Amino acid sequence: MTVIPPAATDRAPAKKPAGGPRSVVLRALLRNKLAVLALAVLALLLVAALFAPLIAPYDPNTQDLLIRLRPPAWQDGGTGAHLLGTDQLGRDMLSRVIHGARVSLLVGAGAALLAGVIGTAVGLAAGYFGGWADRTLMRLADVQLAFPSLLLALAVVGFLGSGLWLVVLVLGFTGWVSYARVVRSEVMSLRTRDFITEARAIGVTDVTIMRRHLLPNVMAPLATIGTLHVAAAIVAEASLSYLGLGVPKETVTWGAMLADGQLYLGTSWWVAVFPGIALMLTSLAINITGDALRDVADPKAYRR
Known about the structure:
The chain has about 300 residues and is an all-alpha fold. It is about 65% helix and about 0% strand. Helix 2 (about 35-50) packs across helix 13 (about 270-295), helix 4 (about 95-130) runs parallel beside helix 8 (about 175-190) and helix 12 runs antiparallel to helix 13. The longest helix is centred in the middle third of the chain and has 37 residues, at about 95-130. The chain is elongated and about 75 Å long.
């Protein structure tokens, strides 16, 4: 009896990668060593922000003029009791840098979340309904873009006064346009697909279609934009605090520390350098993570 070999078309299909989409995304991120390093930095910052009162060796606002402008521990005149030295009022620099992470991450995450909610709602409505709704909402976006975000934030904060949650609200309301434009573009390409047409045909409401069928398909670009917006909001908050228009003076922020230390760059460099390094590393780590998420969101990235 002759055995006929199976045809090429009868071969077993290639095995799918083990795990679901989340496993694929996680493996793609772990292959990017730079992204792993950035995530490790962000995890360290998150732990420092959450447990700052337990980790910081001193209260960040405790003053001691007898030890003012002490250098870091590795320089002559430094001491192990203050590893990063002290500032012009004798406050411990390490404790202030650790506590500064709390405000930066809170403002960054809060502003990105608020802007994402507003921008996603506007983008879904504009892209799905089209017509006069699309024209009206996009003209509002154009008006928003006509005003530089930082200048608008400066004007609002300068008029209403300083405050942590006010800064979050201002940065959130001035950053929704990028979300809205991306979501609108994605929804306009999806609303004519067969699954949307079939959902309409069986009587599914517009709100349900947007919530259950359109929103999940725009989450990948939203995650990338949101990550990058966190970094932008952190830098914006630091800029406002540097100008004295951010959170109240008694709240420790990296921007306020930079403003306090600019007068001592020639003699006591550590007062401004350490908060500057913390701000730079945080923004860099978030941007690297955002770039990695963007690459992972591209299906071609899985083939690398």
